[in-house]
Amino acid sequence: MSDLTQQSSAAHAHSELALDLVRSAARLTRAASTISGVTYSSIAWRVLADIEREGATRVTDLAAAQRVAQPTMTTLVQRLEGEGWVDRVVDPADRRATLVGITARGVAALAAYRRGAANLITPKLAELDAADRAALARAAELMLSIANAV
Q1: Is the pLDDT confidence value at 141 over 80?
Q2: Whether residue 15 is found in the same domain as residue 70
Q3: I need a surface site. Which of 1, 85, 87, 140 has the fewest CB within 10 A?
Q4: Exposure pattern of 32-67 as b/e (b: 16+ CB <10 Å)?
Q5: Domain that holds residue 137
Q6: What is the DSSP string of 46-108?
């Protein structure tokens, strides 16, 4: 097999693995988000998670990150603000603008959502043997590393 054929074959295998990872992660996220009693969309939880990770952010940047229109994000932020999960502060870099930050109540709500999602998955993990659980733990580390790099 020539070097070019081997490179092409490896690139194809990497592409297929990437597709499998995207499909699996999306399906697991959808399955884990079927928590009883949760009324907010996955976008709301992603917004809270983004703010928790990145810090206070402008509504326009939140909208762009979630690929929604700014009025849609404004409405969501207003709902989250009504829950006491986010607050708005003046942007120190531009006093005409505001930043959306997560509150302690928002951090607690996000943690509860994540615990609820994890509780749905935990029984299935218990059915796996130790080697498979170790493989998933390593895969989770690698997926986080990849997600942080893209």
Answers
A1: yes
A2: no
A3: 1
A4: bbebeebebeeebbebbebbeeeebbbbeebbeebe
A5: 33-149
A6: HHHHHHHHH-SB-HHHHHHHHT--HHHHHHHHHHHHHTTSEEEEEETTEEEEEEEEE-HHHHH
State whether 81 and 130 are in the same domain. Answer: yes
pLDDT for 36: 80
| Residue 38 amino acid letter | V
DSSP designation for 40:
S
CA angle 93, 77, 120 (to 5 degrees): 120
Q: Which of 37, 31, 38 is nearest to 122 (CA)?
A: 31
Q: Are residues 27 and 66 in the same domain?
A: no
Query: Residue 13: which H helix or E strand, with range?
Result: helix 3-32
Give the separation between CA 104 and CA 111, rounded to whole angstroms: 11
How does pLDDT run across 63-101, given as a tens digit for each residue?
Answer: 999 999 999 999 999 999 999 999 999 999 899 999 999
The rounded distance, in Å, linking the Cα atoms of 100 and 78 is 10
* Total domains, the chain: 2
